[in-house]
Amino acid sequence: MIPLAKSKEVQAAEAGNMPVVALESTIITHGLPWPRNLETALLVEETVRTAGAVPATIAVIGGVIQAGLDKSALETLAQARNVSKLSRADLAPTLATGGDGSTTVAATMICAQLAGIACFATGGIGGVHRGAETSFDISADLDELSKTPVTVVCAGAKAILDIPKTLEALETRGVPVIGWRTDDFPAFWSASSGLPVPLRMDDAETIARAHRLRGDLGLEGGQLVVNPISAGHEIPYLEISPAIESAIEEAEAKGITGKAVTPFLLEKVLEATQGRSLEANIALVCNNARLAAEIAVALNRLD
Ligand code: PSU
Ligand code: MN
């Protein structure tokens, strides 16, 4: 039996045939600092509700996958230190040992699918790191997108990654990368990375139909919808890039490897850019939550 529990809100949504949007928890434990992480988690959930869907923030607590966390569980998670960051590899071992952890994009996709949730919002996905030709550092998020039938909405990828290689890796894995009302692949803080996005869609219904058709065709895997940050919140690449360069140098000098790399880089960039990148980060996650809710509503209508 799968140790999976749903919050009251998610259970009620299921009973009432309401659309549900999954949300990841690594962004809370490893992506944003306390107390803004809690504030953001609550704000993102509220954004999903306002847009007509029900939020299900996912984490593992005491060896049980939780689909939907109440306020006190979110608070505990947001304040906890040294929380395990769970990706595909860690999920079953953590359940077996009765452990706790926050879920990455990859693990959240797996849990969402188990909970019957087809749509998921986050900030940025993991990807191919710069220097991956020697380090082999490629996020499990990319393989997951090719395996698990969940539509993930993000703001593209952070420039801590090698964006051209990340796009190539997604193409190799047959993951549809869909620009939301844009022809450019967004780069998290910037609306454009300077690279074209492979596909473009301008309405949520089409994204929902593509999701369904992918399943009907027997193609495994999900879709990646990339939603550019709004113009008012953009941070020019030239402004953010020195922080990224020095974070990468510091990670190399300190010999940071494995799953510690992404949280280390996120923390360093955040420190270096102070408030501005944090505000942008929060704004874009909410923007993605709104779009994911729209897609979840459209998926719900197709049923
Ligand atoms: N990129 C971001 N913010 C994040 C992450 C990535 O801009 O919070 C988190 C997500 O949870 C993502 C994970 O799934 O880091 C990827 O980690 P890794 O590169 O170790 O696979
Ligand atoms: Mn990695």
UniProtKB/TrEMBL annotation:
GO molecular function, one term: pseudouridylate synthase activity
Binding site for Mn(2+): D137
Gene3D superfamilies: Indigoidine synthase domain (3.40.1790.10)
Cofactor comment text: Binds 1 Mn(2+) ion per subunit.
Active site annotation, chain numbering: E24 (proton donor), K158 (nucleophile)
EC numbers, comma separated: 4.2.1.70
Catalyzed chemical reaction(s): D-ribose 5-phosphate + uracil = psi-UMP + H2O
InterPro entries, sorted: Indigdn_synthA-like, PsuG
UniProt keywords, alphabetically: Glycosidase, Hydrolase, Lyase, Manganese, Metal-binding
GO CC term, one of those recorded: cytoplasm
Gene Ontology biological process terms, A to Z: nucleobase catabolic process
Annotated residues for binding of substrate: K85, V105, S139, A140, D141
Cofactors required: Mn(2+)
Function according to Swiss-Prot or TrEMBL: Catalyzes the reversible cleavage of pseudouridine 5'-phosphate (PsiMP) to ribose 5-phosphate and uracil. Functions biologically in the cleavage direction, as part of a pseudouridine degradation pathway.
UniProt cross-references to HAMAP family, sorted A to Z: PsiMP_glycosidase
Family: Belongs to the pseudouridine-5'-phosphate glycosidase family.
PANTHER family noted in UniProt: CARBOHYDRATE KINASE PFKB DOMAIN-CONTAINING PROTEIN (PTHR42909:SF1), ZGC:136858 (PTHR42909)
Subunit structure: Homotrimer.
UniProt protein name: Pseudouridine-5'-phosphate glycosidase
